[in-house]
Structure formats: C-alpha cells, structure tokens
Amino acid sequence: MDLYTPILVLGAVAAAFAIGSVGIALVVGPRRYNQSKLEAYECGIEPVPELASAHSAGQRFPIKYYLTAMLFIIFDIEIVFLYPWAVAFDNLGLFALVEMLLFMVVVFVAYAYVWRRGGLSWE
C-alpha cells in the first residue's frame, strides 16, 4: 500500500482542484445570461430559428467538420504509436525504423490525398 500512497494523494489533489475550480467559478463567476449565451455553440454555424427550440433534433453539420475530426484522430493515433517507438528506439534496431517510416508514409499519403481533394479548404 505504501507504493500507491503517492498516486492516491496525487489523484485526491487533482480531484480536489477540479471540484474546487468548478465550485469557485460557480460562486464567484458573473451571471449575465442573454440569448446568445444560452444558445448552443456549433463551431460558427448559425442556428436555424425554427430548429433552435428545445424539442427539436437539431440541425445537420457540414461534412467538413467530420473530416477535420477524423484527420485529428488519425494524427493522434500516429502520435500514440510514435511516442513509445521514440522512447524505445535504441533497443529496436533497423527493422523498427523501417516499419515506422512505412507507417508515417502511409499516414502522409492519406493526408496528401485529403489535401489534394480539397478536404482542408473551408470555402
């Protein structure tokens, strides 16, 4: 149990900080509500008035938002694989270097494809 005490203390401090920050913001923060603050933030999409009621299902998002999210996830996954590889690079050898280069080439080919098809332009 002595090995886990610092981890438990760190978790308790982190939870106390998170709960304390939210609590202080609720107590001290300003309460100036208006119509624009009560609307959902949709990444720059103007809400349609007839769909803005509380009982509606909402509105459709342009596909470019989903493409951007998918690109973000792809590069996150690349970093998840790249970081442990970089930490253990000395022990892995030439085979791991070639495999990581092939992995990065595949990811960048996909990125170039999306860029060439206009998936990154917001016009």
Describe the fold and architecture:
The protein is mainly α and 123 residues long. Helix content is 65%, strand content 0%. It has helices at 5-28, 35-38, 63-87, 89-92, 94-116. Helix 3 runs antiparallel to helix 5 (94-116). The longest helix has 25 residues, at 63-87. The N and C termini lie far apart (58 Å). This is NADH-quinone oxidoreductase subunit A. It comes from Mycolicibacterium moriokaense. It is a multi-pass membrane protein.
Radius of gyration: 23 Å
What structural category characterises the helix and strand content?
A: mainly alpha
In terms of DSSP E residues, the strand content is: under 5%
Approximately how much helix is present in the residues? 55-70%
Order of helices and strands: HHHHH
Helices, by number, come to: 5
Low-confidence stretches: none
Shape: flat
Most strands sheet: none
Distance between the termini: 58 Å
User: What is the averaged pLDDT score?
Assistant: 81
Number of strands: 0
Oligomeric state: single chain
What would you say about this model in short?
This protein has helices at residues 5-28, 35-38, 63-87, 89-92, 94-116.
Protein traits:
mainly alpha, 65% helix
Topology:
Blueprint: H1 5-28, H2 35-38, H3 63-87, H4 89-92, H5 94-116
Helix pairs in contact: 3-5
Keywords: Cell membrane, Membrane, NAD, Quinone, Translocase, Transmembrane, Transmembrane helix, Transport
EC number: 7.1.1.-
Catalytic activity: a quinone + NADH + 5 H(+)(in) = a quinol + NAD(+) + 4 H(+)(out)
